[in-house]
Amino acid sequence: MDISEMFETYFERLSEVAESEKYKQCLQCGTCGGSCPYGIASPFTPRKMILALRAKLIDEVLESGAQWLCTSCYTCSYRCPSQIPLTDAIIPALRELSLLEGNPPEELAAALMNTARYGNPFRESPRKRDSWVKEVEFEVPLISKKGDVDVLFIPECFGAYHRRCREITKALAELMYLIGIDFAILGNEERCIGDLTRLSGEFGLFEDLMEKNIKTFEKYSFNRIVTHDAHAFNALRREYPKAGFEKDVLHHTQLLYENLDKLKDMFNELDYTVTYHDSCYVGRRNGIFEEPREVIKAIPGVKFVEMKRTRENALCCGGGGGGVWLDSFIRNYLKERPAEDRVKEAASVGANVIVTPCILDVPMFEDALKMTGLEGELVVKDISELVLEAIKG
Amino acid sequence: MDEETRIGVYICHCGRNIAEKVRIDELLDFAKTLPNVTVVRDYKYMCSDPGQKLIAEDVEEKGINRVVVAACSPTLHENTFRNACRRAGLNPFLFQMANIRELDAWVTESVEDATEKAKAFLRAAVNRVALHEELEVGKTKINPNVLIVGGGIAGISAALVLAEAGVKVYLVEKEPTIGGNMAKFDKTFPTLDCAACILTPKMTAVKAHSNIELLTYSEVEQVEGYVGNFRVRIKKKPRYVKEDLCIGCYECVEDCLFAEPMFPSEFEMEIGKRKPIYIPFPQAVPLVPVIDPNTCMWLTAKKCPQYCREACEPDAIDFNMGEEYADVEVGTIIVATGYKPFDAARIPQYGFGKYENVYTSLQVERMLNSTGPTGGEVLLANGKKPERVAIVHCVGSRDENYNRYCSKVCCMYSIKLARLIKERTGAEVYNFYIDIRAAGKAYEEFYKKAMEEGVYFIRGKVAEVTDIAKSEEEKGKLVVVAEDTLLGRVRRIPVDMVVLSVGLEPQEDVDRIRNMLKLSCSADGWLLERHPKLAPVSTAAEGIFIAGCCQGPKDIPETVAQAEAAAGEALSLIERGEIELEPNISFIRRERCSGCRICIGVCPYGAISFDEEEKVAVINPALCRGCGTCVAACPSKAAQQHLFMDEEIYAEIEGVLL
């Protein structure tokens, strides 16, 4: 593509995202750059990207690789005084160009290609998507068999295939079973929800996934969706309605909070000092701050401590927006990754358990614990794992 | 009228405002087809002298006896054209305006639609004006007294101008003292003269002036009436100290059961402490203490030996004081209710309320003030002087998450604070800004002076303030993170103190004031002037003027200029003595009135009474304000309103719809 074609493609994509016109009102204040976990290392902060776009230097931005230095943590968008959709439009549209030009970072490109082919980024067979149900001692019904249910449970790709994350899926399923929630799963019919695909700039693939998923949802009768994947939650809540999907979507922290009275009766004491990590797409993006805290604080024996950067100001784990597949790429730019910074912060406030509500956090933080030598001092648990532990003792 | 109806239609281009959207030629042709239309003309600017003369000539030469001008909004030029009719010897109410600018050209996208819409409006006006009657205007006397709401520098300035001119002024202030926000400042830009030195003489002059009745710790509760004749009810909150007896000796404060001040002082922006009985600051006017009912041991628990009462020689303390009301009558009102500072805690990433050395600009003003809690020293929470200070501009301003507008004064006061902090502490001072707005007399020079003195300016809005250290240098410090947008690099500046330059916001109770006085406000909540350029202190409500920051952020010189302008407007009305009233008042068609009295109950002005002999309602034209409520309420169509007769309205509606 020559530069004018690039511009045309770019602005066509931009025009499809709500409020993207606001980039014209950028004050060049730099709030985004200062807020970005990679701002200190990036050759083009979001501010400078907009400046470069204004100067028709789009090729220089793409060559710098800056478009891949984004975890989609949403801090820049949240704070931007001109409310420019940096995370949802400016950056992913640049990534799209980079994908079209054929030079995305390899690991990410593979993940996207796998998602297109297999419906998951891991190159796993779609038939193995519900293989985790064989590892639990209770029945996890398929919605195709059970018919009408209250809750459709979406484990999403990480929850279905990632070795560590499957433990979280199993814990949450067991909690729903113990609480007595009427739930079922799609089984092999489930397919990637696609939020990371969208944020990685693969808009076309995302739309395709969304369309197929909505068709699948429409086959069945359920009241609401529950997922422990913060990105799936975000896409189902914010993007899918644009394509006509109208069901209620709950994050598992909300479901646990909703059933807190029942849970309280089952809790045993836990001798932990717990801190809670506000994940980007649970907290900052979707405003869920209190529910998980209430659940954690209700567990007897737990000492709850806050980190310094909490709620809207929480630091990203670095896994979002495709970040989970950009590890080696980002290392070229940055010495300390955000996840390492974050686990140090958790340790500094005296926590021995860092509880998270987002499935990406768990592998990101566990890796960071190894890198920082904090293994043994601090463990990472999804909130459903902590709650199940409190019940089982 | 017996003579034949001859209507003159005048279509205004308004430069290109109307002409670029409405096909004037087509409209001219259309107008000629309308009934009773004798003359049709267009002109580039109908409001100009030659434009107005067209009407006079046609009255004289063509014998037209009704006029329709299709132009802008009647709020802008209805009076212009009514007067043109009057000068031409035509009753001014035989005129109707068709608004083809604000309601048409400015808001319609296609030329086709705009032209069709203009035709409909024009037909409506022609239909209606044929039914207009000659009307006479009534007059009302202007009560020469003035009410000023708000005792900050705006209210004080206006009060003094009026009082000096011999006008009786009621100055109402909700706080225990006048002086407003300016009384909290240490020095003022760009001259660095002491705020107290220039303000307190004016405050004492207010107190001393025989023409000013000062009502502090009081709020305007109710306003009735209209220009020239407002009836105002003022609530005086109990101070528990009798103003007429108190001599301001401080004995009561000193002898209070609480030996030391221990409650956050509102005046000191909560960085200083006060007792339950206190005088906000030493130059307060009136110099009379107030007792806080929420912290006084007697008022909260009836458990206190009342040392204050014992100490008071003139016996001014009265715990039985309750709310009192004062009713006053005035002819004009000046609203000068000011602003409230933006609540910095709303921006979590700046750490206000979380880190003890993050302060707001007004808190630092109090530190700098020699009568403030630190006696004029800028100190950290540990009592030491800061070595490095960051000043964060645009806190709550120019930010769509909070307020879109620029608060206008923050750049200059931030530069002022930078210079004062540097002078008092010798600290390195960093100003983080988006743009420096120093447009005012001697303002740019003030900015340059700060640079010359070594104040640093970094172009970048602060992203966050954190105490998480990334290097040895950052340990134990507050780190200000911002993208230095000129350098193109994210910088982390470790400092000891952060000053948040908070913007200005409309007062908490601005909606109450607005509804009480029937004023409008802008989308941001600031009170709205009648015209942003040409009527900056007038409002949509006749006889009510606005001054100072209640209209929008402004600095002291602008505030005073506006206050004195408002005083001038009030004086102009007072000097006139009487004003003409719109003739659009209601009347009762007695033969239709069934005597149901519904209208009497709904009239907000108490203008309708009942004639017991004839058993019909009677409207007092002197009290009727033409609101039309009775017309709408009357079940037998007996109540009618001049200029809004049923036939006129129906004719107009038909004109729009056909």
What would the keywords be for this entry?
heterodimer; A: 393 residues; alpha/beta; Fumarate Reductase Iron-sulfur Protein, Chain B, domain 2; Rossmann fold; four-stranded parallel sheet; B: 658 residues; FAD/NAD(P)-binding domain; five-stranded parallel sheet; 18 helices; globular
Please sum up the structure shown.
Chain A has 393 residues and is of the alpha/beta class. Chain A folds into three domains: 3-103, Fumarate Reductase Iron-sulfur Protein, Chain B, domain 2; 108-257, Rossmann fold (3-Layer(aba) Sandwich), CATH 3.40.50; 266-392, Rossmann fold (3-Layer(aba) Sandwich). Chain A is built from 20 helices and eight strands.
Walk me through this protein's architecture.
The complex is a heterodimer of chains A (about 400) and B (about 650). Chain A has about 400 residues and is α/β, with parallel strands linked by helices. Chain A has 3 domains: about 5-105, Fumarate Reductase Iron-sulfur Protein, Chain B, domain 2 (Orthogonal Bundle), CATH 1.10.1060; about 110-255, Rossmann fold (3-Layer(aba) Sandwich); about 265-390, 3-Layer(aba) Sandwich (Rossmann fold). Chain A has 20 helices and 8 strands. In chain A, the strands form 2 sheets. Chain A has a 4-stranded parallel β-sheet, sandwiched between helices. In chain A, strands 6-5-7-8 form a 4-stranded parallel β-sheet, sandwiched between helices. In chain A, strand 7 (about 355), helix 19 (about 360-370) and strand 8 (about 380) form a beta-alpha-beta unit. The N and C termini of chain A lie far apart (about 60 Å). By secondary structure, chain B is an alpha/beta fold. Helices cover about 30% and strands about 25% of the residues of chain B. Chain B has 18 helices and 34 strands. In chain B, helix 1 packs parallel to helix 5 (about 110-130), helix 5 runs antiparallel to helix 18 and helix 6 crosses helix 7. The longest helix of chain B has 21 residues, at about 555-575. At the A-B interface, helix 2 of A face strand 24, strand 25 and strand 26 of B.
